[in-house]
Amino acid sequence: GRQHVLLIWLLLYSSMVEALEPVGTTIAIGAVAVTGVLVRSMSCYFNECCQPEWISFNITKLERNLDNKLFGQHIASSIILNAVSGFMRNRNPKKPLVLSLHGWTGTGKNFVSQLIAESIYKKGMKSRFVHLFTSTLHFQHKHRIDTYEAQLQQWVRGNVTDCELSMFIFDEMDKMHPGLIDSIKPYLDYYDNLDGVSYGKSIFIFLSNEGGDNIAKTALEFWQAGKSREEIELDDLENTLSLSVYNNKNGGFFRTSLIDKNLVDFFIPFLPLEYEHVVQCAMAEMEARNLRPNRDVADRVAKEMIYTPKLDRLYSSTGCKTVQNKLNFYI
Ligand SMILES: Nc1ncnc2c1ncn2[C@@H]1O[C@H](COP(=O)(O)OP(=O)(O)OP(=O)(O)O)[C@@H](O)[C@H]1O
Ligand SMILES: *[C@@H]1O[C@H](CO)[C@@H](O)[C@H](O)[C@H]1NC(C)=O
Ligand SMILES: *[C@@H]1O[C@H](CO)[C@@H](O)[C@H](O)[C@H]1NC(C)=O
Ligand SMILES: [Mg+2]
Predict the structure, then answer these.
(1) What is the annotated signal peptide range for this record (predicted)?
(2) Same domain, 78 and 163
(3) pTM here?
(4) pLDDT digits over 168-209, tens only?
(5) Residue 131 CA: which ligand 3 atom is closest?
(6) Would you say residue 172 lies in a domain?
(7) What is the domain extent for residue 304?
(8) Pocket flag, ligand 1, residue 281 (CB < 6 Å)
């Protein structure tokens, strides 16, 4: 009996001394601290959060992707690289970056938005800080415009409050109700903050087909004058672009104060794509599917496209849009 008690007492005592010795204590305290830090960063480790681990701009990635993956858009490519990298370099931007992308269908507007998102957010378009609004989906009914205005304001405000570096893409601007976009105008303007929220680090991208015909017309004129496509410069397009967009009664930019007040930083033209670009799209798509790119197949896909104007058959009227589906027939 007695001896047993003594033995147990001795054992307990010795383990207590061990636990309290300086090295052990330090380790114990250290372990507690490390656990605390781990728990805190764990949620950012596994879940996306508004921190540099998940959001940081990689200019090399954007440049490489624009060079290698985007075909036939020398103007858009260089403006976007300069605009985005300039904006991301600025630690204290006075207003959000606002880009407006214009051009025919299938020329790469959504595609470029995706490349931009991928160069900033680790999760690219899947990031919870990237928001894609499609006019025909989110703002469909004309009679609900008042609700949409309130909702849109609330979404943008809420999301920027969550994370300053949010990205908003408005697709199909030409089908948006004129006036709706004005509801977010205050957010795009030069303010340090509005009601305690500052919008200066966010990016807004508008996509539309508006102005596409004008862009194509200019491109055609260059071709007819015997000049190369690469000679077309932004200056040749920018003014007519913003004007035609502003005056289009049926588009989301109609007489909008965004343009009045110069809140759109860049109007970016997307040129209509030629036969050779469609071939490039087809080759790229085969590579993306881990197939060996086959020029014959690419040619067959490209030949199926409809080219305008009727006489010269220069520009694919749907750009590269149907390449993926057409490819399915041949492989
Ligand atoms: N210039 C391009 N370079 C490389 N791929 C392109 C280009 N344009 C289009 N594509 C390919 O075609 C697909 C469709 O293009 P995208 O969705 O970007 O067109 P869009 O300009 O947004 O057209 P829409 O006005 O109809 O929305 C893209 O996913 C991409 O694979
Ligand atoms: C940036 O992108 C390049 C090209 O995709 C990649 O090699 C590089 O590791 C990236 N840098 C960082 C810091 O992620
Ligand atoms: C952020 O935007 C999404 C739409 O993309 C919306 O559903 C969500 O409610 C917004 N978040 C906040 C906090 O407002
Ligand atoms: Mg699109």
Answers:
(1) 1-19
(2) yes
(3) 0.87
(4) 999 998 888 877 888 888 888 888 788 889 999 999 999 999
(5) 5
(6) yes
(7) 275-327
(8) yes
